[in-house]
Design brief:
This is Alternative ribosome rescue aminoacyl-tRNA hydrolase ArfB. The protein is α+β, with helices and mostly antiparallel strands. It has helices spanning 25-29, 48-57, 78-97, 110-130, and strands at residues 12-17, 33-39, 67-72. The chain is 42% helix and 14% strand. The protein has a 3-stranded antiparallel sheet with strand order 1-2-3, with helices on one face.
Length: 134
């Protein structure tokens, strides 16, 4: 089970910058974009097994040093962007720790096989009846 997002806060660093895109004067003078940085292998909150699972699932999203970088610039408010990026971080960790349900191989039932073969036989007879007689 994953601990609450608040327990990760001492391990997370935030960096702010000016957001890109439309927004007029506000975008040009306010640093509302928030970037979250978290080092997976230095985490004290997660077990080694959880770290291994996250490393396996998020390989493409981690830097060579094992840093996870997430950014949010959805809102005009820096505080709101910080909340958004924290929610994304927590959701990403939850998703990466979720184990898929094992697939159980099944066979079609005898009646399903019988129905399929009967349908094929009927279709074949239908086509055979359309042929020209010699």
């Amino acid at each position: 089970m994953l601990p609450p997002a608040a327990s990760f806060l001492p391990e997370i660093t935030f960096q702010t910058s000016r957001a890109s895109g439309p927004g007029g004067q506000n975008v040009n003078k306010v640093e509302s974009r928030v970037e979250l940085r978290w080092h997976l292998m230095d985490s004290q909150v997660l077990t080694d097994e959880q770290k291994r699972l996250i490393l396996e699932k998020l390989t493409n999203q981690l830097t060579a040093e094992g840093l996870l970088l997430l950014a949010a610039q959805d809102d005009r408010s820096q505080f709101r962007n910080k909340e958004i990026v924290l929610a994304r971080f927590h959701e990403l960790l939850l998703k990466s720790l979720r184990r898929p349900k094992p697939r159980k191989a099944t066979k079609p039932s005898k009646s399903a096989v019988r129905k399929r073969l009967e349908g094929k036989k009927l279709q074949g007879e239908k086509k055979a009846n359309r042929r020209k007689l010699d």
